[in-house]
């Protein structure tokens, strides 16, 4: 038999790993700052019991596939934690561990790893049960649709588990659609002549290849649209799990100059009439809608504009082949189509290959062929370049492939939930009672299909529009004359991950690293520390270091006056600022460009704080480059200042993380 532990969602409750002799396959992702996913934590906690003997899993043979994103420091760490612990308890690999990287495309590792799994299973079963039995089992798994003879019950279980891991449906050959270059030769000849591929067309060899495409996901939703008789719709049902607070925006300030590369806004929320509470370093969710113009374009493209106010009624199709089919929990009952597209579905989400495969069923000619290419194994590079990396969304695809006419049910089955966007609290409730500050850049990028169209981020673009009526520049100390504009309101909800807090011992020294908007939680730290020192003038407070960076000193030096204030008062004992785009003036020495460069200049002090004074280091900001570079610099600093090899320095840094003295709040 073959056991699967996909994302460890099934845990060990369905079977007992203490006695399991069948090969185990584990597929696990990574969340947070290198932690296993929530569904795996109970399992991980059990196997990390220090009382377990070293031969506890000596009978177990397993293969593990870790899913992660190399933009984050602790790549695939959820899988690595389980992998390491299973080996410590005596388990052995029957198949080598794979680490799939979402940064470059999970399929580049996942698909070869699954292909190799069959050979590994063959070898395992051959050595344990005999070649004849495993050959029969794998033959059953690959030709189930043609089976006529009875099968041993124990082999049927192998078949069912093998099928769970297949990218295709039962009968692999049925899902490998062989499309020859002769198909639509006349229509595609002009495309083949093009020297460069694009979202809508390919070039040889892909344009001439036979394709292996994934199985078509079974349809399972039946959708009806009924007239909605004038009921008002509220957003309360969008996030039913968490408490939602409707709060007014009391202030909005532009922190950057108009010629800065990015526009940064500070927003103040009035939470005085709510039960919302927070600590400096906490984050919270902003519940945001999709762009109204994009929703209207999507309705037009689906030819449903005249039914946008109709109520969406969902049922499970009676003849669906989808196992365990259930209504999507993120689509509330009794809501209009426009409400669902606006508040419930991530219409900008990059479509998975399963969705491309489904869209192809409703396209014709070259459009159908190209959609098949983009979801095929042969088209993995084009999918990465023109879909995933270009952040191509559903509306982009529908504009690019005009023959594609998907039904509404397809969208509701494949589009994920519109997630609330997290933001760091940039204030202290001691300094600003009843208020909550947060900071964000207005994200802007070009549309992947029409490059002349500038788009804004889903949440930041919406927030910028919401605060436009009350926005003022940083230099303006009071609202403009003519009376205050009515305060707009937004919905927020708390986040439960409260790990990014100041040390419980105020005497512990602190190093803060936060370029750009990564400075947000540290403004809250400094405000909080200032009030604590006012309340306890005789108290002992540790040193506070801040490594901040931006592009230009005169354009996007966020919170410059506040930081100078904290520095003059001795709250902030060390302020180190770097400007990555400012050129040296006259004959002065070239300025330090990045926060990690400044850290290296002060390597002795950084090492002393962390290794000799039991200090804490906090890193907030971009995961893709900054967090990695800061982590690498810390390794170099520890290696240099303690005279140890890099591997030993990495272990020291890992210990700091385990002790919760190296904390990250990072995003991509």
UniProtKB/TrEMBL annotation:
Q: Which is an annotated Pfam family here?
A: NAD_binding_1
User: What is its cofactor?
Assistant: FMN; FAD
EC class name: oxidoreductase
| InterPro entries to which the protein is assigned, alphabetical | CysJ-like_FAD-binding, FAD-bd_FR_type, Flavdoxin-like, Flavodoxin/NO_synth, Flavoprot_Pyr_Nucl_cyt_Rdtase, Flavoprotein-like_sf, FNR_nucleotide-bd, NADPH_Cyt_P450_Rdtase_alpha
Q: Which residues form the FAD-binding FR-type domain?
A: 242-503
Residue ranges annotated as transmembrane are none
> Domain Flavodoxin-like: where?
1-118
Instruction: State the superkingdom.
Output: Eukaryota
E.C. numbers: 1.16.1.8
Task: Please give the name of this protein.
Answer: Methionine synthase reductase
């Amino acid at each position: 038999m073959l056991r699967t532990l996909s994302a460890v969602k099934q845990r060990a409750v369905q079977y007992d790993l203490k006695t399991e002799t069948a090969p185990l396959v584990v597929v696990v992702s990574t969340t947070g700052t290198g932690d296993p996913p929530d569904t795996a934590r109970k399992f991980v906690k059990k196997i990390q019991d220090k009382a377990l003997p070293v031969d506890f899993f000596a009978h177990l043979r397993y293969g593990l596939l870790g899913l992660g994103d190399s933009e984050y420091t602790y790549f695939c760490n959820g899988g690595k934690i389980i992998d390491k612990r299973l080996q410590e308890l005596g388990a052995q690999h029957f198949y080598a561990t794979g680490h799939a990287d979402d940064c470059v495309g999970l399929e580049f590792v996942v698909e070869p790893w699954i292909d190799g799994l069959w050979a590994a299973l063959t070898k395992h079963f051959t050595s344990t049960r005999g070649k004849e039995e495993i050959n029969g089992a794998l033959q059953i798994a690959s030709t189930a649709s043609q089976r006529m003879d009875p099968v041993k019950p124990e082999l049927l279980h192998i078949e069912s588990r093998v099928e769970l891991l297949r990218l295709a449906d039962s009968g692999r050959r049925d899902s490998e659609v062989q499309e020859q270059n002769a198909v639509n030769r006349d229509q595609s000849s002009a495309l083949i002549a093009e020297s460069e591929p694009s979202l809508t067309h390919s070039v040889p060899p892909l344009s001439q290849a036979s394709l292996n495409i994934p199985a078509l996901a079974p349809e399972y939703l039946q959708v009806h649209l009924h007239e909605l008789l004038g009921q008002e719709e509220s957003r309360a049902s969008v996030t039913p799990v968490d408490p939602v607070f409707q709060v007014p925006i009391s202030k909005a300030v532009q922190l950057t100059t108009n010629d800065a590369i990015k526009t940064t806004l500070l927003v103040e929320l009035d939470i005085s009439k709510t039960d919302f509470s927070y600590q400096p370093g906490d984050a919270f969710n902003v519940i945001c809608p999709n762009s109204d113009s994009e929703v209207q374009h999507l309705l037009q493209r689906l030819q449903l504009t005249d039914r946008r106010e109709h109520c969406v009624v969902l049922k499970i199709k009676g003849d669906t082949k989808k196992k365990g089919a259930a209504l999507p929990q993120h689509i509330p009952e009794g809501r209009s189509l426009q409400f669902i597209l606006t508040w419930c579905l991530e219409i900008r989400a990059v479509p998975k290959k399963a969705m491309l495969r489904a869209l192809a069923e409703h396209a014709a000619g070259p459009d159908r062929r190209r959609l098949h290419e983009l979801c095929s194994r042969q088209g993995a590079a084009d999918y990465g370049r023109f879909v995933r990396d270009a952040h191509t969304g559903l509306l982009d695809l529908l504009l690019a492939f005009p023959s594609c006419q998907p039904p509404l049910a397809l969208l509701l089955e494949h589009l994920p939930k519109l997630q609330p966007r997290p933001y760091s609290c940039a204030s202290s409730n001691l300094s600003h009672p009843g208020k909550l500050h947060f900071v964000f850049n207005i994200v802007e990028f070009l549309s992947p299909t029409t490059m002349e169209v500038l788009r804004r981020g889903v949440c930041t673009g919406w927030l910028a529009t919401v605060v436009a009526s009350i926005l003022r520049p940083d230099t303006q100390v009071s609202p403009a004359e003519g009376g205050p504009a009515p305060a707009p309101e937004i919905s927020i909800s708390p986040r439960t991950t409260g790990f990014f807090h100041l040390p419980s011992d105020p005497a512990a020294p602190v190093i803060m690293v936060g370029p750009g908007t990564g400075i947000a939680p540290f403004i809250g730290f400094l405000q909080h520390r200032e009030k604590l020192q006012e309340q306890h003038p005789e108290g002992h407070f540790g040193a506070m270091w801040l490594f901040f960076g931006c592009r230009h000193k005169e354009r996007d030096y966020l919170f410059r006056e506040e930081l100078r204030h904290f520095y003059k008062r001795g709250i902030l004992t060390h302020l180190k600022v770097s400007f990555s785009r400012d050129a040296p003036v006259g004959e002065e020495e070239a300025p330090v460009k990045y926060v990690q460069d400044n850290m290296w200049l002060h390597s002795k002090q950084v090492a002393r704080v962390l290794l000799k004074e039991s200090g804490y280091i906090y890193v907030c900001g971009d995961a893709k480059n900054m967090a990695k570079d800061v982590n690498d610099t810390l390794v170099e600093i520890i290696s240099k200042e303690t005279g140890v090899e890099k591997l030993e320095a990495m272990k020291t840094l890992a210990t700091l993380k385990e002790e919760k003295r190296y904390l990250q709040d990072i995003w991509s």
